[in-house]
Amino acid sequence: MKRRVVPVRERGPVPSPPPPTAPFPKAMRPRLLAFSACLLSASAFAQNVIVLDDDGGPGVDYTNLQDAIDAAQPYDRIDARTGSYGYGVITKPLTIMGQPFANHHFGPVSRTAQLTIAGLQAGETVVVADFEADTILVEPNQGAIVLDRIVSVDIHIDQARDVRIRDASVIQWPWSQPSPAIEANDSFVQLVGSVVQGKDQSSGSQLNGTDAIVVQGNSTLLLADVQVTGGKGSDEPGCAASPGFGGNALRCTNSTVRVLRSSLTSGEGGAGCGGTVASDGFAIRNIASSILTSDSTITGVVSNPALVQDIGGFPMMNLTGGSQPGETADFEVFVAGGISTRLFIGRRPTMTPLPLIDLPLLHSAERGLSLGVSPPSGQRTLPFLIPGLQPGTLVFAQASGTNGAGTALSNSVTLVVR
After folding, report:
1. If 0-12 CB within 10 Å is exposed, 13-18 middle and 19+ buried, where does residue 10 land?
2. How far apart are CA 349 and CA 330, in angstroms?
3. Residues 412, 398: contact at Cβ < 8 Å?
4. Residues 6 or more apart from 30 whose CB is under 8 A from it?
5. Distance (Å, rounded) from C-alpha 108 to C-alpha 112?
6. Tens digit of pLDDT for each residue in 202-223?
7. What is the pTM of this model?
8. 293 with 305: CB under 8 angstroms?
């Protein structure tokens, strides 16, 4: 059966997002995408650069993260060299960039024990890139928070209007506290191209595996190309206690969730004596939440399956490739085959509702490109040649797909220029 793109709730004809320019020949598109970046850079905020290095030395402004944050003016950039920097609390718009690293699963070289982001006003943005933070606390915020190439053990988000996490590794290790790897309450969160793992309990600890992701309190969660696995329950080979239950990959309460081209795997139950095995967790533990899945792999039990809607070919975006001037970043667009597709590029994160479309327009959309009708595979890769933009510059992209049932918007992706 041919797949089609439909909105989460079909409510009659749906107006398209703001009209883009006329279609462009394929050969021109990479050049035009690079030109769009040039237009975006012209209006970027001017930045002072603060150099942070815990070893001190020539050219270093501060050796302590919090001192650098306190000294920074709004929209300044802190360049953190290799080192460990204790704790940091951010309450104003700024950019913190660590040392780029080859593989985020092995961790960056700029780290902090705990990073707290709180109190941003609407229209303000914090960017943290190439950083390791054992714990990230996002407390009530009206602004936008971009976490790019982050390594963390747990991320807790509460009453945050706009949190965008990309290319992150959030894995709970044996010494972690028994809490979800990512927890969001009353927040809007996008998670793209990332790995999330609940805590596997050690043998004999008599503990259940922890949940990987928990969302509650009217949150919205978008998962795009994310691997999510619940923690394993403890083995109890000595028969003195029952083995631990597996953790849930995703537990959601009174929230809205989209799972796009992702995998959700329940945590395994522990083994006991005599061949007994505890129950695995849920792949999706659903309590009064609306969940849409598309082209995803769900391994494990799904509770309340009537509240889980599966729609193949729903629009999704990912970002791969380079991030430095002169390199090429690839915007990857996935929709169903034969769908009219558009790409929108912007400089500023926004949350602009569109009539009868469930997701908002997630950036300022200074530039729109018609991509024509999607190929049978539904996948397009759009090269984006990065010009000489200053580090910390943001480029946002979001796609739409339109068929006879209406228009649906994808998640947004964020390019952070290094």
Report:
1. exposed
2. 20
3. yes
4. 328, 382, 383, 384, 385
5. 11
6. 888 889 999 999 999 999 999 9
7. 0.90
8. no
